[in-house]
Design goal:
This protein is an alpha/beta fold. The protein contains five helices and eight strands; from the N terminus they run E-H-H-E-H-E-H-H-E-E-E-E-E.
């Protein structure tokens, strides 16, 4: 019996990350690179994370960017936000949710975090109509295939995102 192994997880992660990172060779400027704001610094102590998020939201609002807001969290930040509590035991995660009024998403390819407006119309991801399955290799028990799809990104409002840096 031969098992087919699809490498689709890597494809999903790459597609998600394309919008946050730049791809200079293709002329694609990502969300973090295009943002006109200075990144908001984050101390090692994640109890101050809600304060950094509140500063990000305040800066976006003062630039005329409406909410609700969402946040993409790098692996370290995601874990810390979920595990940390503020003085008095209140979960950092709950406080951040109140500030944003939007979603928190794990973004394994970024360092730090990115607060973005979710008002709509600021960013576009275009998925091509082409879709392919590529043969990668095989061994006695498995055939390795890779899913390939054309995806590009347009940053229509660079002012709708701000980075929180570690």
């Amino acid at each position: 019996m031969v098992t087919f192994v699809m490498l689709s997880h890597e494809t999903r992660v790459e597609s998600r990350a394309r919008s946050l990172a730049s791809l200079a060779a293709a002329g694609i400027e990502g969300v973090t690179a295009a943002s006109p704001y200075e990144p908001i610094p984050l101390a090692e102590d994640y109890t101050g994370f809600p304060s950094a998020v509140a500063k990000a939201v305040a800066e976006l609002r003062s630039a005329g960017v409406d909410g609700p807001f969402g946040i993409a969290l790098g692996p370290r930040e995601h874990r810390a936000v979920i595990e940390s509590t503020e003085h008095g035991g209140y979960p950092v995660l709950n406080h951040v949710r109140l500030i944003l009024d939007g979603v928190l998403v794990w973004a394994p390819t970024i360092e730090g975090a990115v607060v973005v407006s979710m008002r709509g119309g600021d960013f576009e991801i275009h998925s091509g109509l082409d879709f392919a399955i590529r043969y990668v290799g095989h061994d006695r028990d498995q055939v390795h295939l890779e899913l390939i799809e054309t995806v590009t990104f347009r940053n229509l409002s660079p002012e709708a995102a701000i980075r929180i840096s570690p």
